[in-house]
Write a structure and sequence with these properties.
Blueprint: H1 5-12, H2 18-24, H3 48-59, H4 61-78, H5 80-83, E1 90-93, E2 96-98, H6 122-131, E3 132-135, H7 164-167, H8 197-233, H9 235-249, H10 253-263, H11 268-279, H12 281-294, H13 298-305, H14 310-347, H15 358-367, H16 372-399, H17 402-405
Antiparallel strand pairs: 1-2, 1-3
Length: 407
């Protein structure tokens, strides 16, 4: 039997949705349920590309664990005053509470007469113990605390190498003295001025990482801006900038530091400012190459044709591509900044005398070969820090590798 015109039209007509047919089929008189509501989840915080990069970073187990270890060490050293300090964390005295770790109290508060309280004084300790209590950090030395009870002349070996009688020989009550406790041990010995090596390592680690982070961040901002301007505008701007960078980078930094050190007193910010004058140059070449490569891409020309401004194109369209190479470069620049500070401290042109510094500890190890714990401690901490940063840098480089991110 041949199909009629109505049958052929019915076959060619697209099928109606089931919900529409159910809504129109009211012959049965039964109310039909509406279409299911699809729950819209919260959009992911990272784009799919960045999610793949993050997964690639986590896949590098050495870099992943290095980041965790370095972050844990940095957090601990940020709270160095709660770990190694010659002041108690909290004191309860005559039903009042004091926090010497945040504020200096005069000694008259605890029955003395000096303007600043020495909490290691036996008189102050007995007075507080008779009228309250105090909580000490695990290490009862700051980076500048001098231990006058070391059993041998400074530099003194680690406390665990002595017997209990030898460790307590210089205390007033000997072995029975309440201050001859584990908290007053010098776990890694003392330096040539009887200061605790472990406390100086904790504070030195913090100041080295903070110096490197501030210098790297400031250098990245200046270097990225300079490289972006060169690469995007090109022409005479690029030519003049390149000649300026060649002249500027040929200035000997060490000689400049020597001249400045002879005129100005050494300090953290002075040293940081001098290093910043030259460290930003390392970022210019990478960012400039990215902007030169991408400034004539189709989407950039389309943005120009739509009337988008140059600075908007640079910041919104070109900068994210350039930041890939910059982020890959950052851990190694941080590594170099820490090494530079350590080298300057080792030579005596870095931080002020007495500051906790890994380079200064290495210099003490060189001058006191009879005390190998000085050089070994500084070398192990510096090597561990730099190795962790190198492993993190390798993981970041693998994470931004386009052969792994786009496959």
């Amino acid at each position: 039997m041949t199909d009629t015109v109505e049958d052929r039209n019915a076959k060619d007509r697209p099928a109606e949705p089931a919900t529409l047919r159910e809504a129109q089929g009211g012959a049965s008189g039964v109310a039909q349920a509406g279409p299911p509501v699809v729950a819209m989840g919260r959009p992911p915080r990272l784009s799919p590309l960045n999610q793949r990069r993050w997964q690639n970073f986590k896949a590098n187990r050495r870099g992943w664990w290095s980041l965790w270890i370095f972050g844990l060490l940095f957090v601990v050293t940020l709270c160095a005053e709660f770990v190694a300090n010659d002041k108690p964390i909290l004191i309860s005295y005559k039903n009042e509470y004091y926090a010497p770790i945040f504020r200096d109290y005069p000694e008259e508060v605890f029955g003395g007469f000096l303007p600043v309280t020495n909490y290691r004084d036996p008189f102050i300790q007995d007075e507080i113990a008779a009228n309250g209590w105090m909580i000490w950090p695990p290490i009862r030395y700051s980076y500048q605390s001098v231990n006058n009870e070391i059993p041998t002349p400074a530099p003194s070996p680690p406390s665990w190498t002595f017997s209990k009688e030898e460790r307590c020989a210089r205390y007033p009550q000997g072995v029975a003295d309440p201050n001859c406790t584990v908290g007053n041990w010098n776990w890694l010995g003392t330096d040539d001025q009887a200061r605790d090596v472990l406390a100086r390592l904790i504070y030195g680690f913090r100041i080295s990482v903070l110096f490197g982070l501030i210098l790297t961040a400031a250098s990245a901002v200046i270097g990225v801006f300079a490289g972006a301007v060169q690469g995007y505008f090109g022409g005479w701007v690029d030519l003049l900038f390149q000649r300026f960078i060649e002249i500027w980078s040929s200035i000997p930094v060490l000689y400049l530091l020597l001249i400045v050190a002879a005129i100005l007193p050494p300090g953290f910010w002075i040293l940081l400012g001098i290093m910043l004058l030259f460290s930003w140059v390392a970022f210019v070449g990478v960012v400039r190459a990215e902007f030169l490569r991408a400034r004539n891409f189709e989407y950039v020309n389309a943005a120009r044709a739509l009337g988008v401004g140059d600075w908007t194109i640079m910041g919104r369209h070109l900068l994210p591509n350039a930041m890939v190479a910059t982020l890959t470069f950052l851990p190694f620049i941080l590594n170099g900044s820490i090494t530079t500070l350590t080298s300057l401290d080792f030579l005596g042109f870095g931080l002020p005398p007495g500051s906790p510094s890994l380079g200064e500890l290495l210099a003490q190890g060189r001058n006191n070969l009879q005390a190998p714990w000085l050089g070994i401690s500084g070398f192990v901490v510096l090597s561990l820090m730099l190795s962790l940063l190198v492993f993190v840098g390798e993981a970041v480089r693998d994470a931004f590798d386009p052969r792994k991110s786009f496959r």
